[in-house]
Amino acid sequence: MIKNNIDDSKFIGENCKFGKNIILENVKIGNNCKIGNNVFLKSVSIGDNSIIQDNSVIGYGTLSGHYYEQKSQKNNSNNINNSQYRINIGNNVLIRTGVTIYMDVSIDNNCWINHNAIIREHVTILEDSTIGSNTICENNVSIGKRCAIHNNTMIWAETLIESFVFIGPGVSFTNNSPIAHLRDIPSTIRGAKLRLGCAIGGGATICPGVEIGQESIIAAGAIVTKDVPSRIIVAGNPAKKIKGVEQQSFIKDDIRKQYQLWYFSFLSLYIIQS
Q: With respect to CATH, is domain 158-178+189-274 assigned 2.60.40.10?
């Protein structure tokens, strides 16, 4: 029988369930959590009713060097580095099988991180957002509330994604530095900015530093090489304006509330059945 390795710096809530062959180092786990088989947790705080499925690594070693040291000093919006725990996972979070999460990451309440996703250093994901399977989220990325990021998406470093953003499967955010993981790189990496409520169709490519305006739509397969104003639809290579977004398509508060109720109901049903 394989034994678990749980150090003395653990704080574990009530009614938690643990699989086999797990390693816990400096962790805090809330009530009613489930930790699967072959899971590694290091310097992690997990809220109530969260699930970590099999073969996940949370607390993977951070690359050292000039770039990450700079980011650690200036990117403390969630006070992650001032906490006892370098990874903070909220309540009702579902992390599926094979996920890898590096240090200095914050995942808010009611988020889903799907199979084999990779979340790099200094990433913040706000409440009710979903990260698709096989998606790679590079360092220093900010993701807002209730975002839906689908499978096989590549999100490059320094990308800002505001709330209510939809990103289809297979979208690529390109980078402007061929040496992003080496030491002493210049601080000139430019990520894209996706404003509130915009939507990116499957297979689109977003070039470095591009800003997608509020509630704009990028057609599937488009190559976006320059900024896109708010509330227009673009398509093609390079992407060009097709038409404006109709007024009734704008995100409204009642739609946001309906989405929130649907998401919570679906998440609760999944946890009950698990």
A: no
